[in-house]
User: Fold these one by one.
Assistant:
Number 1:
Amino acid sequence: MSSSKLALKFLSQKDMIAAGVTDMKHCINMMDEAFTLLGKGDYVMGGSTRNSHGQRVWFPKEPQFAGMPKGGPDQRFMSLPGYLGGRFRICGNKWYGSNVNNPKNHGLPRSILMMTLNDPETARPLAIMEANILSGMRTGATVGLSARYLARDDSESLGVIAAGPISKYCTTAIVNELPSLKKVVVFDINEEAANKFCAEMSAKLDIEVVPVSSFADAVKGQDVITSAISGDHTPLFEDSWLKEGSLLTLPGRANVEDDFLRKAYVVPDGWEMQKTYKIEGLMLPEDERTIPHIQLHNLVDSGEIKESDIHDLGKVAAGLANIDKNSARKKYFISNGMILQDIAWATAMYESAVEKGLGQDLVMWDEPYLV
Ligand SMILES: NC(=O)c1ccc[n+]([C@@H]2O[C@H](COP(=O)([O-])OP(=O)(O)OC[C@H]3O[C@@H](n4cnc5c(N)ncnc54)[C@H](O)[C@@H]3O)[C@@H](O)[C@H]2O)c1
């Protein structure tokens, strides 16, 4: 009989690093496993469709109460619960807050994240961990996985839009996956950030990484493009800038042209999650409504794009969708992030921490207080 004592592991950022959280190759392979399970359907996410990205705490633009934070772009709290099956068979929840002014005003990262893992049968908490690196890694690794399945084998150039932490993880992952790459170009509205990014990444990745002075220069003629801007601007990727056969992979916000969507292979992280975004978005007042990739939904609703032509990365990873990555057709990967990614990488870190004896054991009770 299992003990009724309840203890869980706490993993600090230092413990997470010692457990191997920065190992990009390992993380990309874990994302492959997680997305394969998504493709097969062995998962549950929150909300009534079982496919909700998560629950957002969204402050009003004009708060009526003293002390209540004022809402703004990239300012939110989010809780992302879910269950991942297969050999994981575990529940998890990521809880984070984001404030785009954190770096400038407080010397803190834009977002601050924590992750909890639970046994799915008993609900017993297993671990609580620092999740900034974990979350950035799983985001980058998923973009890397999209490069594994969607980028041409002869890809030589990578264009990076925005020089923030998410782009660093994405660049690391793409370079890891595409040995044919020869050059990376970077554009950020903050020139200093772009220069720092180039110095750091070229030293770390052993590849030429150089800044360019315009958004268009970071896109035109590149074999792979990744974009992770924050704030309220949403750039437009003109179809004519995007090279035949190229991969546009988007962990961040962007606009594309209808014609690009009609012609490209469209690969979301999870199409059912994207549909749930729309259902939930329509419940918001019109002036606060944000539905990611609404343009794609509109083209599906008008019949110009068939749902059967949209393939999740999970379907691709599970071998249930056929995409000719070496063809001249453009590819479009859209990622809003799924808790399944966090659960997979957090489980790997928890198992590694147990094996290596890392972290602190926190006792919640020796015997439960039962009334
Ligand atoms: N898809 C996912 O799973 C996922 C996960 C985490 C974060 N994100 C998103 O990624 C984005 C970036 O995250 P971060 O932590 O790196 O943010 P950050 O704020 O730390 O850095 C963003 C960078 O973008 C630059 N930027 C802003 N507007 C720009 C523009 N118009 N052109 C070029 N550069 C511009 C900024 O100067 C900054 O250097 C956020 O919007 C976040 O919501 C996505």
Number 2:
Amino acid sequence: MKIRGYRAGRIIEWIRVLRAERVGPIGIARLAITGLSAIINGRLPPEIAKARYRICVRCPVFDPKLRRCRNIYDGEYLGCGCYMPFKVSASKPGEKCWARSGGENSKEGWE
Ligand code: SF4
């Protein structure tokens, strides 16, 4: 079964990420809005989403188990905490991911 082009299993994975993030109501709301906008607005062309996702899986911030943008480095949480299969499809072209928005000259991540 698919919902707006997404396999139902993706919804279950997204809910796992929301539970894992435990960032309080505002953080959960932010992550939920990202996920819901992906579901409601549909997907970007798959070639854009796939190119972004390929960058994510090579990124040290990527958590492959939950497919989220989150990792711990030097005891500090890095990443936006978003479920990437939704975010790579929902972010409009030109929007920057967590790593790319880290600084004016940042070339990491995608946009
Ligand atoms: S920082 Fe950017 S490239 Fe890295 S996992 Fe997060 S969204 Fe993907």
